[in-house]
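Renewal narrative, Specific Aim 1. Our central claim is that a sequence can be written position by position from structural information alone. The example that follows is taken directly from our test logs and has not been curated for this report. It begins with the structure tokens describing the chain, in the order in which they were read.
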């Protein structure tokens, strides 16, 4: 079991003052590249993640980002064959509603598939850019209504008066593609990896992310006792 000492992207945004309003685009590009690569692999095995969010983007001390939250994963393989869509109620709806795709919430005959994860990538990208998920703070029923009506992601105003960083054309384009209300128009993870925004990971050293996140540094594992290591391991993979 891999222990990720640097914590999650959500942890960093919530606890480190320099990142309270989100990360700069070079950081977002690196994070998304690793996450989308993970999704591509997961989808190739026939699994839908259903909980793609910054809370589940865990950063290893070497600067590699891993996708956790696997308790929500569901297989699209039934009776030895891959089905076109999944149906049925998802028990994690309330906690994850800000990130969930409209088709997953609608519970209609069309069902949902791998492209629901791509929608969540778009929401998570906005979360990484602003420090907060779109729709956060709204009642659950209102979020569902907005999503089912095809309303674009809503960014709530911050109470601290600080302005969010500018979202570039490259990032905005990726987000718009991912959150398209029509799942068939969303790009596959493979196509996302070929966008100019995500190609950046190929051009940087693995530890670049570690440097970009300063002054945040991984925990010094030499000072951890066995009990604490066990607790952190459980936390990272909860």
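The sequence written for that structure reads:
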């Amino acid at each position: 079991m891999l222990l990720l000492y640097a914590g999650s992207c959500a942890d960093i945004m919530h606890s480190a003052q320099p990142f309270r309003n989100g990360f700069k685009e070079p950081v977002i590009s690196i994070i998304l590249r690793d996450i989308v690569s993970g999704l591509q692999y997961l989808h190739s095995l026939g699994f839908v993640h259903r909980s793609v969010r910054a809370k589940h983007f865990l950063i290893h001390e070497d600067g590699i980002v891993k996708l956790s939250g696997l308790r929500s994963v569901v297989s699209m393989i039934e009776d030895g064959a891959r089905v076109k869509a999944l149906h049925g109620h998802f028990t994690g709806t309330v906690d994850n509603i800000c990130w969930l795709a409209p088709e997953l919430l609608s519970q209609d005959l069309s069902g949902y598939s791998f492209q629901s994860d791509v929608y969540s990538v778009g929401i998570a990208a906005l979360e990484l850019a602003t420090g907060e998920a779109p729709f956060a703070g709204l009642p659950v029923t209102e979020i569902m209504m907005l999503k089912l009506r095809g309303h674009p992601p809503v960014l709530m105003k911050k109470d601290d008066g600080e302005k969010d960083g500018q979202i570039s054309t490259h990032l905005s384009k990726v987000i718009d593609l991912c959150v398209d209300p029509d799942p068939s128009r969303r790009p596959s993870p493979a196509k996302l990896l070929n966008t100019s925004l995500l190609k950046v990971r190929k051009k940087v050293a693995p530890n670049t992310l570690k440097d970009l996140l300063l002054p945040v540094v991984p925990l010094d594992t030499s000072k951890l006792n066995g009990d604490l290591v066990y607790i952190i391991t459980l936390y990272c993979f909860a």
